[in-house]
Amino acid sequence: MIAAILIILSITALIGLILGYASIKLKTDGDPIIDRIDKILPQTQCGQCGYPGCKPYATAIANGEADINQCPPGGDDGVHKLADLLGVEYKPLNAEHGETKPKSIAIIDESTCIGCTLCIQACPVDAIIGAAKQMHTIVEKECTGCELCLPPCPVDCIDMVEIPETTDNWKWKYPIHSIKQQN
Amino acid sequence: MELTDKIFKFFGGIKPNGHKAISTINPIKRLPIPKKLIIPVRQHVGKVPNIKVSVGDKVLKGQILAEPIANISAATHSSSSGTVVAIESNKIPHPSGLPDICIAIETDGKDEWIKRNRIDPSNLSSEALYEKMKSSGIVGLGGATFPTHIKLNSNKIKTLIVNAAECEPYITCDDMAMQEKTKEFIEGIQITMDILKIPHAIIGIEDNKPKAIEKLKTVLNKSKNISIKVVPTVYPSGDEKRLIYLMLGLKISKEKRPVDFGIQVFNVATLISIGRFFYHSEPVISRIVTVTGALKRPNNYEALIGTPIQELIKDAGGKSDQEIIMGGPMMGFKLPHTDVSVTKAMNCLLAITDEMKSKDTFEMPCIRCTKCVEVCPAQLQPQELYWHAKSKQFEKLTEDYKLFDCIECGCCSYVCPSNIPLVQYYRYAKSEIRDQLKSSEVADIARERNEFRLYRLEREKKERAERNAQRRAQTSDSDKKKLIEEKKAAIAEAMKRIEEKEK
Ligand code: SF4
Ligand code: SF4
Ligand code: SF4
Predict the structure, then answer these.
(1) Of B321, B342, B363, which closes a domain?
(2) What domains are defined for chain A?
(3) Which ligand number lies closest to the CA of residue A55?
(4) Which domain of life, per UniProt (chain B) (predicted)?
(5) Average pLDDT over residues B233-245
(6) Which of A148, B129, B330, B422 could lock onto B413 through a cystine, CB 3.0 to 4.6 A?
(7) Is the backbone of residue B417 left (phi > 0), alpha (psi -120 to 50) or beta?
């Protein structure tokens, strides 16, 4: 009887040890968690989360320094995904960090631009091209819509323009029938 | 490819009431040239072509209005002669209801053609032929609107399959075209075989079109290289892969395309267009549209591209406020606006019947009866697809339930006793997943560019520091002494001044 209990106890202890070791081992082995968080973040690089970019925010989340609801461009969907990944409770976006806006890109009014290069220095993804004293343009495809180029512009010639819905980017909507039924 | 007389039954499918007789009573009708044509610049899958005309220009019938700018793109032509009166955003027949750029032409009633010559494909190099085809405006007229020149630009094809199944209920445009334009149809097949340099073509046609079958059989009587295979009427036999299986017993998996097996499939209307293009130098300026459903006089119309659909509906005895489906009842979509015009994709205008409406209004919970599983020709689990699409569990949908194998045939919705609009859920989920994929691609680029920028800033900082250090290092040798001397001299001078003051 006692022998049986002892055996069972030792087996449990052994399994516990293995599991404990495995969890530590797996965690330290090429810690991918920052990258996995970063993969969920939208890469707008806007800094609204309070960190100088998505990767630093991802690092802060991984280190338990930041909450998962600080990224407005990622929206509610993003928070859900982070919650799923980290196995924590979902919480709504923290309004202090701003609200989710429709996807936009920056457009420079080229006739007003004085070519001061301040916006170029602000752009986190090098999406603005132009040399000193020449007007600048934004490479639409690369603009993340972070708005970081707006404040430095001394002549206020940059506008954020919402990306219009076209037949190319249009999406089928969630079937309305179920809504009808709910009513 | 081994040819047999055998028919290979595919899994699933349904046998809905065809409702085809109502639109085949009278011959194909042509209406007078509309006063105004509204021609969407892009009517195909692929890049928007480049507009070649301006407002005020006089244009002739068959003249190019917009030229393809890339390989996957197609030309758009003027369907009659007249004047370009506007180039602007306009309503188009699209499920989104969103507008797109259209060219409006006020017709002059003369219907005057541009100069035309017969094109002999055997005199053309394959490059020249490709370019010619690119300017023809021919796209898959079954509704898919994929540019045809790409499908013809292959030397790996051994079998041409003519998709004459026309399996969707209500639609009869191919049936009528085969009856009335038999010669042009055969010419189109022949020339397509010449272009693809293949000796044989098989027409796959459902047995619910006895008149067309008989006509084709008489015309093809002696032909050894074009054969007919009559297949049973089971929806969706007109789906490319289903048809290939029916006719050849060849199963093509999701990852593969018919071309990988040396097979190319063309629809009836597309082949007629190919024939007309080479024999009469006629680009796609018209198409046959079945106008049917809850109308007094359902009929097929040969309509100029750009014809306001209201003219067709009115002629068929419909009212201007009727709800219209573009395409068939299974795979079509309800037009958000009915003041749009005929496009290359428009094979059918179906005025919604009361019976359809009643099915459209309520959705009940899934009772897990698995009726949908029994009919799904793609052998999927429609009820699981539905469940996961409804609860937005997209990852599971693609990985475990193979959502993207779904051909959106609508068999599952058709049999569902709970009236669940299953396909609408699948379309929703598919477009969400596609959008997420695209966003993550865009995010990857942004991440890379941001990382590069950080690296660049770091490098520039380092370089600046190095330059400064270098400058400092350089000054040390010859200039340092000089500097010290200069400083010494300055100090000496100052001392001198002070001394002088003190005196
Ligand atoms: S708030 Fe901006 S910088 Fe922060 S994670 Fe979101 S997108 Fe990236
Ligand atoms: S047919 Fe409809 S009710 Fe039956 S299992 Fe499929 S989705 Fe559910
Ligand atoms: S619509 Fe998709 S899931 Fe439904 S029966 Fe057709 S292939 Fe299967």
Answers:
(1) B342
(2) 32-99 (1.10.15.40), 102-165 (3.30.70.20)
(3) 1
(4) Bacteria
(5) 94
(6) B422
(7) alpha
